Amino acid sequence: xxxxxxxxxxxxxxxxxxxxxxxxxxxxxxxxxxxxxxxxxxxxxxxxxxxxxxxxxxxxxxxxxxxxxxxxxxxxxxxxxxxxxxxxxxxxxxxxxxxxxxxxxxxxxxxxxxxxxxxxxxxxxx
Length: 126
Description:
Layout: H1 14-22, E1 25-29, E2 32-38, E3 47-52, H2 61-89, E4 93-99, H3 107-125
Parallel strand pairs: 3-4
Antiparallel strand pairs: 1-2, 2-4
Helix pairs in contact: 2-3
């Protein structure tokens, strides 16, 4: 298992980000909301992701950045579940992950909730 989270996992193309919201399919497990879209064209990896913490809830950039940093760390540790499933199925995903809680939660709690979110996503993709 490779726990790195390099540039190839980051969704940067505006076209793909816009397509996520035109064909909205989402999974919600508090405190996360994940919008996703199956892409026809192969990506560098089987999925690429964007992280978001709303400015409306977290006014200070320091808090938003910390939440996104923790989300990336949790994602980095749990991504192998999703990556293995997508590799077996031969599918490619664009993901947009939003933090919806108004409070900063502990990383252990976020990791547990994120694991449940990934399993819900996999169930939806089957």
